[in-house]
Amino acid sequence: MESIQAVKGMNDILPDQIGxxxxxxxxxxxxxxxxxxxxxxxxxxxxxxxxxxxxxESTDIVEKEMYTIADSKGEWLALRPExxxxxxRAFIQHNLQADPLARKFYTIGPMFRHERPQKGRYRQFHQxxxxxxxxxxxxxxxxxxxxxxxxxxxxxxxQVALHINTLGCTECRPVFxxxxxxxxxxxxxxxxxxxxxxxxxxPLRTFDCKVDRCQAALVEAPLLLESVxxxxxxxxxxxxxxxxxxxxxxVVDPRMVRGLDYYMRTTFEIITDRLGAQNAVGGxxxxxxxxxxxxxxDVPGIGFAIGMERxxxxxxxxxxxxxxxxxxxxxVLGDTARHRGxxxxxxxRDLGLEVEMDYEGRSLKSQLRRADKLGSRHVLILGEDxxxxxxxxxxxxxxxxxxxxxxxxxxxxxxxxxxxxx
Length: 422
Ligand code: AMP
Hints:
CATH architecture of the largest domain: 2-Layer Sandwich
Bound molecules: adenosine monophosphate
Radius of gyration: 28 Å
Strand content: 15-25%
Number of strands: 16
Distance between the termini: 42 Å
CATH class of the largest domain: Alpha Beta
Shape: elongated
Helix content: 25-40%
Strand order of the largest sheet: 1-5-6-11-10-9-7-8
CATH superfamily of the largest domain: Bira Bifunctional Protein, Domain 2
CATH topology of the largest domain: BirA Bifunctional Protein, domain 2
């Protein structure tokens, strides 16, 4: 019978890869929690309207990339394409604003976008997401970016650049938008069909178009950074100042617009030149009107998301795979030894050791071969004679030495010599 394959663009993460994921997740938790962020987990499925209202009707994500389903009552639902909208919904729904501890959140989990799969771009991918509510001071913008940078540094990723821009506010962006639309009208015949459409629906997105002739047409385009209001310019200047004070380098990138409509003022991306076309590792920004627009209190917010697959692709280029301490192996010969080994393995696991043993009655040679394949350094050999005398042999596979010890001391001795990572 033909076997069933995974859905295109959705990947299994196999045990030989999982060490990377654990490394990233553990490091993320440590770094984010040191900045006062607390974990929140939201459902993968949400009401479609949540994303349409937050990300924006005329964005690529909402227009063409969402997995949607109608439930039995005819209500439209969608697999989340990103986490911010869900985090904001949960913040509002549970009135977390009233909780003095709950202002900064993070989540780690799968997101879904129906994009054309290629290296670094998948239909199910994973994001690390952080959101902070309630502070509009530029100091928080700098802190958020600094936290992102700290995470990348703790992961050992230094070959990435922080790009920043400002997208203005509800005062200055609409004015700029009109100016840009007028410019795009004049260059309309040089734009690709997508940008022809975008020039009315979402003109800023034309900056993100990958088509060469659009990029060429935009060389002369007005830039938002040069047209923002005094308040936004001051905010951006202060953000840069705080980043300087923190010693965090950045590149001002006036053409960076981000693909989601809810951003305002500070936006940022982590860019790499090591992943081919998929050069964004993470990105985020300020979204001060979003909580209110989704029916909540008028509180500001700022956040970012990092793509874990891209992060791990980068990590794999530079570092050896995270090592896992191999298990202790119990080799058993004969039924009595097998039974004794079975009990002893549970005792050792209770002590926190990882233990493997053979249940299949294989020869000592083949058991040792298996221990070797597993990378086990310590093998406890329970032979028939030793068991009679309540003894065991502890073999050090690296040193190729063997010590006889009383069985009653085996657990304590193994705990001493073999440890498992947390
Ligand atoms: P965005 O929410 O579009 O700003 O994306 C934030 C980050 O998520 C990006 O910088 C990527 O690292 C990652 N990402 C977005 N879309 C995908 C995808 N289809 N496959 C893999 N990673 C993605």
